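Try this one yourself first.
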């Protein structure tokens, strides 16, 4: 799916924007994460596993950085 394609402009984008503005503040990041994964899955499904692994790794690293911040 390209950014200028009909399915993106008339289906995907309005649905994602509608969901984004309908969910409470805490759920907005989840909507964007799932929409991004779906978008990349539509274009190249084999890379979604790599993206999930990268997201998990970055999240764990962020937690560790926060945990050990300020220690010598």
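Now uncover the answer:
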């Amino acid at each position: 799916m390209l950014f200028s394609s009909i399915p993106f402009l008339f289906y995907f984008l309005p649905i994602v924007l509608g969901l984004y503005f309908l969910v409470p503040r805490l759920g907005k990041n989840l909507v964007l994460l799932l929409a991004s994964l779906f978008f990349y899955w539509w274009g190249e499904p084999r890379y979604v596993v790599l993206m999930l692994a990268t997201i998990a790794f970055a999240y764990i690293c962020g937690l560790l950085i926060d945990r050990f911040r300020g220690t010598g």
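Discussion: The mean pLDDT is 91. The helical segments are 6-22, 28-43, 48-67.
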